[in-house]
Specification:
Layout lengths: L10 H9 L2 H23 L4 H17 L1 H14 L3 E5 L2 H15 L3 E4 L3 H5 L2 H7 L3 E4 L2 H8 L16 H15 L11 H18 L2 E4 L3 E3 L4 E6 L3 H7 L3 E7 L3 E2 L5 H12 L7 E5 L10 E7 L3 H5 L15 H5 L1 H6 L10 H12 L4 H5 L9 H5 L6 H15 L6 H14 L2 H13 L1 H4 E2 L2 E2 L7 H4 L12 H9 L4
Parallel strand pairs: 1-10, 2-3, 2-4, 4-7, 5-8, 7-10
Antiparallel strand pairs: 5-6, 6-9, 11-12
Helix pairs in contact: 3-12, 9-10, 16-19
Keywords: 4Fe-4S, Electron transport, Iron, Iron-sulfur, Metal-binding, Repeat, Transport
Pfam families: Fer4_8, LUD_dom, LutB_C
InterPro entries: 4Fe4S_Fe-S-bd, 4Fe4S_Fe_S_CS, FTHF_cligase-like_sf, Helical_ferredxn, LUD_dom, LutB/LldF, LutB_C, NagB/RpiA_transferase-like
């Protein structure tokens, strides 16, 4: 994963910091509300949406169950079409492959299509270390790059910025790396887009090498697919002489016909559109048309570890639509930076710990970055049961990181299990709790209890025990009769 996220605090600490940013919360609320409403409108137009969703989930599940077969089929198809396939076990290997491919061309710069896989491996940093400039061409990614920032959303990486902030970034930074923004630039969206267009145009016309990701990789034809809204991606995919695509191995779909399902699910779930303005597909190379040197880097980087988990593997079905982020009450209040990963929000909370492991504080905190409200599952176009995955990963974190510090709490949970397992013991505990009301209750709430119970009471306001339990009331008023 990107080095920009290493050493970040765990989610609770990062979220607390972000919650204090009123402008961030305002920007997020406006953006996510707008996208949610657009998505709901276009999804409601389709009577067969549940069937499409079921089909998308089934296709991805099948592809993951036979991933080795489809990856080899994809490699054969790409090779037969004039491309070259490279296999990368981790970020270091992928970065080395891409860097060497760029060096072989003799070029010192590349233009890039928006790609989460290259963010995941911090390809830009690796290219910079090798003396190669990498220029982001997606508008939101350009904003993030010029602002020396990190993405905070899957679909809209600069969602945490408002128009006034973008204007200042363009005015201050564009001239340092290319065509400057106009002196009279305002925060009008059309003017901002035009400034970006003029800034990028010289890079498109000059660059000989491009780097892309892919939304889908079709096994039977060796085709890669990129969907976008601006057209900058198509410029990258068609103008340069060399194209290098870094693609996660989970992006495989078996057949061209499968795209019929996903090209309906993805745009509606992501941008709230019936179809993407630009859908680019390419298969190998063609004489006199587009890049004449084509390379695919198939990236593992923890994906086979996730695939080995029978419960966790469903996270690999993700098509990066960001619908779960836009409905998540936690994401809407904290933003993406609090997650410490290029994959924020609910899907990041279940995908990142599987790709990176749960050794760091930030990674083992991510499965707990949710209220388990279930909204993410309701909108997921490939029916990933994110709440179930979160609970599954919470169990894994506890099992992997249990320590002596947890022993008192574990013993307490054992006692609670023993009490709750017998009706008579529970009745005794309820009476004891009612008698202790005056001792542990403060203004109707349980006050701070001694350790280790303080870890529980410090994190929540729990009501004090009732003066009389329901069991006691029933016995007193009904004599224990039904």
């Amino acid at each position: 994963m990107s080095a920009t996220h290493l050493g970040m605090p765990s989610f609770p600490h990062a979220a607390k910091r972000e919650l204090a940013n009123a402008q961030l919360r305002h920007n997020l609320a406006n953006a996510t509300t707008t996208i949610r409403h657009k998505r709901a409108e276009v999804v409601d137009e389709l009577d067969d949406w549940p069937q499409l969703r079921e089909s998308g989930a089934a296709i991805k599940a099948h592809a993951l169950s036979h991933l080795d077969t489809y990856l080899e089929q994809f490699e054969t198809a790409v090779t037969n079409a004039g491309g070259t396939v490279h296999w990368a076990r981790d970020a270091d290997e992928a970065n080395r492959i891409v860097t060497e491919l760029v060096r072989e061309t003799g070029e010192r710069e590349v233009v890039k299509v928006k790609s989460m896989a290259t963010q995941e491996i911090d390809l830009n940093g690796a290219l910079e270390d090798a003396g190669i400039d990498a220029w982001e061409t997606d508008l939101a990614e350009l904003i993030v790059q010029l602002g020396d920032d990190t993405p905070s959303h899957i679909l809209v990486p600069a969602i945490h910025r408002n128009r006034a902030e973008i204007r200042e970034i363009f005015r201050d930074e564009m001239g340092k790396v290319g065509t400057p923004a106009p002196e009279d630039l305002t925060d009008d969206p059309a003017q901002l887009a035009d400034a970006a267009r003029q800034h990028l145009r010289e890079k498109f016309l000059r660059a000989k090498v491009a780097v892309s990701g892919a939304n889908f990789a079709v096994a039977d034809s060796g085709t890669l697919v990129v969907v976008e809204s601006e057209g900058n991606g198509r410029m990258c995919l068609t103008l340069p002489e060399t194209l290098i695509s870094v693609v996660g191995i989970e992006k495989i779909v078996p057949t061209w016909q499968d795209l019929e399902v996903f090209l309906q699910l993805l745009p509606r779930s992501s941008t709230g559109e019936r179809m993407n303005p630009y859908t680019s597909t390419w298969t190998g190379v063609a004489a006199g048309d587009g890049p004449q040197n084509f390379h695919v880097v198939l990236l593992d980087n923890g994906r086979t570890n996730a695939l080995a988990d029978e419960v966790g593997r469903q996270a690999l079905r993700c098509i990066r639509c960001s619908a779960c982020l836009n409905v998540c009450p936690v994401y809407e209040r904290t933003g993406g930076h609090a997650y410490g990963s290029v994959y924020p929000g609910p899907i990041g909370a279940v995908l990142t710990p599987q790709l990176r492991g749960t050794e760091s504080e930030v990674d083992k905190s991510l499965p707990f970055a949710s209220s388990l409200c279930g909204a993410c599952y309701d909108v997921c176009p490939v029916a990933i049961d994110i709440p179930d995955l979160l609970v599954h990963l919470r169990t894994r974190v506890v099992e992997e990181h249990s320590s002596a510090r947890d022993k008192p709490l574990d013993a307490l949970m054992g006692v609670a299990s023993w009490v709750l397992g017998d009706a008579k013991r529970l009745a005794w505990a309820q009476k004891a709790a009612s008698l202790s009301r005056k001792v542990i209750g403060r203004k109707g709430k349980i006050g701070r209890l001694p350790a280790p119970l303080s870890r529980w009471t410090d994190a929540r306001d729990a009501p004090a025990p009732a003066q009389e339990s329901f069991r006691s009331w029933w016995e007193r008023t009904r004599g224990g009769k039904e």
